[in-house]
Each structure stands twice: as structure tokens, then as C-alpha cells.
Amino acid sequence: MGEQDMPTGPGNGPSNPGKRRLGVMGGTFDPIHHGHLVAASEVAAQFHLDEVMFVPTGQPWQKSHRHVSPAEDRYLMTVIATAENPQFSVSRIDIDRGGPTYTVDTLRDLRALNPDTDLFFITGADALGQILTWRDSVELFSLAHFVGVTRPGHDLTDAGLPEGGVSLVEVPALAISSTDCRARVAKGDPIWYLVPDGVVRYIDKRELYRGE
Q: Which stretches does the entry tag as region Disordered (predicted)?
């Protein structure tokens, strides 16, 4: 695993000695899997984060083309998956807001709640390629430093991203995907060791993904 500097930014984000550094990992988490957890842990180590907050989306506007599991199920799976790591926390901020979830709203709310904290928004490198199409995209980079997690060898061009606003981190475990996990459950295939054990049991108990 290693960090890859983009032409657009430094390797470790803003340098403000003494300020708290909070990682924000937003996602549908449908379901959360080990790729998410390894990515969060790796970014926390490389960027010296004090905490990584997982923020399950309420109503993901990008996922309107498919069925998304209820927010409470996705929230509880995330709580189960992160419970053993004291550096991880889970926020209901997007779920409780209501309406479609937009990253800019998430970061505005977290900035208001954490005025003396540097925010690091952790997302997939593929999502970074679309970030300029997100709502109020220009404002996003004033609210947080963006960290794109990617598989080794993945190339991402500048794509008009602001200087100093983005860094890339390579995480081999990202070969796991929520889409594949859902498909395996639907076919009756096991997902042990792809997602945390407690999440496997939760999916089975709630009979999630069986009709997809």
C-alpha cells in the first residue's frame, strides 16, 4: 500500500499543527465490506488522522437506478463493522437530515460541528473523476481535503481538480465491492471474509439482498 501524489496536491493534505484531523468516509455501505475498512485504516495512518467517521448516506442521489437497502440497516451494519476499532465512529448526520444526500451538505454540517478541525473526505478514485458534476462542487474543496483511494496502478488525470485539493492512496483490498457482495448473497454464495463476520450474520438475519 502506498501513497501517490497527484499533480494537483500534496501528499498529506493541509498542515496545521495542533489541529484535530478528522477523516470522513461517506458511502452507501450496502453492505460495508473489508475494502472500506482497510481503506479507512490506511488513510488514517498515512494522513495521521485522529478519527475516521463513517457517514452512511440517507438517500443516495446517484443510486436512484437500483434498490437501496433501508438506511437503518445500512447504518447498523456500519456500526457492527466498525465497533472494534476505537479510531472509527459512525454518524447519522446524513440519515437524519432527510432528503437526497449531497456531499456538500455533509461537509457543511460537519464543518459547523467541528470548526477547529481539518476534514479529509475519503472516497473512491473513480468518484473523484465525477466530482466536478456534484452539487456545489467548487465549494467542496474549501470544506475538506479529498483523498481518493484506488487500486495499485490506477491512473487519474488532473480533470480540472484544484491545486492542493486532492491526494491518492493505493489500497489493494479495494478489489472487493458492495455490488459483488450483494450479487453473491442473491445467488446463495458465501460472503464470509469479504465483509466482517457480524455483518454477514446481520445480512442473514434480515434476509437482505436475497431478492436482487
A: 1-23
**Cα 147 to Cα 123: distance, rounded to the nearest angstrom:** 6
d(CA 30, CA 57): 10
**Mean pLDDT (whole number) for 154-159:** 64
Q: Is the pLDDT of residue 9 over 60?
A: no
Please answer whether residues 196 and 80 qualify as being in contact, where contact means their C-beta atoms are separated by less than 8 angstroms: yes
What whole-number distance in Å separates Cα of residue 37 and Cα of residue 54?
Answer: 10
Beta bridge partners of 117: 20
The angle that helices 197-206 and 71-82 make with each other, rounded to 10 degrees, is 150
Return contacts of 108-113, CB within 8 angstroms, 24+ apart: 108/143, 110/22, 110/24, 110/53, 111/143, 111/144
Q: What Å distances lie between residue 138 and 42, 135, 144, 165, 197, CA to CA?
A: 27, 9, 11, 11, 40
Contact 123, 26 (CB under 8 A): yes
What is the pLDDT of the chain when averaged over all its residues? Answer: 88
Q: Which domains does the chain have, with CATH numbers?
A: 2-8+18-176 (3.40.50.620)
Lowest mean pLDDT among 124-128, 177-181, 185-189, 199-203: 124-128
Contacts of 201 (CB under 8 A, 6+ apart): none
- Decide if 204 contacts 184 (C-beta within 8 A): no
Greater model confidence, 14 or 109: 109
